[in-house]
TrEMBL record:
Domain DhaL: 403-636
Known catalytic reactions: dihydroxyacetone + ATP = dihydroxyacetone phosphate + ADP + H(+); FAD = riboflavin cyclic-4',5'-phosphate + AMP + H(+); D-glyceraldehyde + ATP = D-glyceraldehyde 3-phosphate + ADP + H(+)
Protein's UniProt name: Triokinase/FMN cyclase
GO molecular function, one term: ATP binding
Species: Sciurus carolinensis (Eastern gray squirrel)
Binding site for substrate: 87-90, 140, 145
Complex formation: Homodimer. Interacts with IFIH1 (via the CARD domains), the interaction is inhibited by viral infection.
A Gene Ontology cellular-component term: cytosol
Amino acid sequence: MERGLWCSTVTGQDAGIPADHILNLLFTPLSQSSKKLVNSVAGCADDALAGLVACNPNLQLLQGHRVALRSDLDNLKGRVAVLSGGGSGHEPAHAGFIGKGMLTGVIAGAVFASPAVGSILAAIRAVAQAGTAGTLLIVKNYTGDRLNFGLAREQARAEGIPVEMVVIGDDSAFTVLKKAGRRGLCGTVLIHKVAGALAEAGVGLEEITERVSAVAKGMGTLGVSLSSCSVPGSKPTFELATDELELGLGIHGEAGVRRVKMATANEVVTLMLDHMMNASNVSHVSVQSGSSVLLMVNNLGGLSFLELGIMADAAVRSLESRGVKIARALVGTFMSALEMPGISLTLLLVDESLLKLIDAETTAAAWPNVAKVSVTGRKRSRAAPIEPKETHEATTVGGVASKQMVLVLERVCTTLLDLEEHLNALDRAAGDGDCGSTHSSAARAIQGWLKEGPPPASPAQVLSRLSVLLLEKMGGSSGAVSTGSLQEQRADKLYGLFLTAAAQPLKAKTDLPAWSLAMDAGLEAMQKPCPYPKVIAYSKPRSFSFPARYGKAAPGDRTMLDSLWAAGQELQAWKKPGADLLQVLTKAVKSAEAAAEATKNMEAGAGRASYISSARLDQPDPGAVAVAAILRAILEVLQSQGV
């Protein structure tokens, strides 16, 4: 059942805000309130509206009132004006939807509070005196809003101004009919669009009122949130356990109708749609198999765009699995509840005539650029590009070299999996703590590839395929210089750069000098223009040249490059006639391990760790440690094989 006592005074501490929360707002010491970037609690609504108008030449403030209007008001003679509004804190609603084809103006209250009657009346008078042919007020169904807009309407009508009012209640949370009716939620924005399009087309006030009232009957909205929000100067409006979600909440920080356990995005969306479409729910929306709908996925203010996209995908898939056709889909922030980390789903039954109004042109800044085509029935993927044909040498598999390569790769994978927790621990000192996880993902991807069959006999092709594999499957910055330590620039890219470049010299030869050149090419690809030209200078065919700018790292920057570079210097000995493979490689591994250990005394010069105080970086760079471990694994396999 609905929680909280509702304040419904005309003067307004709103429109849906719980009375006990108003007391919190009045009496909570600022030291206990949440942090907000405001100049003052009392002036935050005025400042927010002023900021929007200051950045949008198409808007103007009405002097003496918290009202924003179209700046081209004088061009609306003979057309119906569409006004809406409510408490602040729902941005971009309501002022973000002022523009040609949507709202003529809005009247804003304080945060989560109804606008003043005098300001509403002033807005009506302003549009009337501009020569408009009547005014439609679009009001969300909250007591304070209904009363204040209603009083202003009656006063305006007493002055001879034609004014109509539609009250929107699209909340699908309540299973039992409430005396106050359904709350007005994000679906109200769609009514703004429909009414604005009709007004722009020159339709009369009475017809617009009738048509939007009919449209509103085919609409439902349901919200869910991970936690509450907090009005400036106050504490959060309700508390949720870490394993709970609030279902069916409104847009004023009030609690919902039910608390449920945390679940996956797919499960939460299924729960929401089941509730909204359940015919036994008195506030359900009559969507069924075969229905055509507009889907609106609304960020309640604090949800990440990543989560929003996941929820949108889940909603599309769930609706289509029920046989519902999605004619349009709007995803973004349309009506928020300050910083509330949650979403609402709105379903609007549509036909072709209604879609024309939804698709009609508008200059409202917050209205998205929606594709005027159906979502359902469109191809959502394109076939992958055809890969270049491989040479005979590249596609040859099997043989002694291939078996040795399998043994090397298997040992490398085992090593990285064993190091997962250690690398994560190192990474937590200066990164997001996922270096080990990133390398483990790469190891599992390589293991999966090896299970598909033996790798090519060509080392160049093996390195090229590993590069592609890591770019697709590995996260972090090592797959591109270190995955952690806040040096992270994305591991998949750095390993990818190294392997792609290293493969080039091995296309012509695979002797020891060629492997040394391969290391040189890989190192060059990972570095910015290097201050040590003599160190990396080497003679190689021009066709092996690789731009030395992508990784933007250099030796001494405290990245994985430090280990690789130290090993690369030792591997220069492979270019000398009669060089011993294992002897040189052993020195290279020891140098790499020493370089990795030395990174704990370095100040980061690249990647995420470069933004962290050097005083906090007292552990070796995890990417450098991972590289040294990889080289050690390669050495041990070759030693065991007696190469």
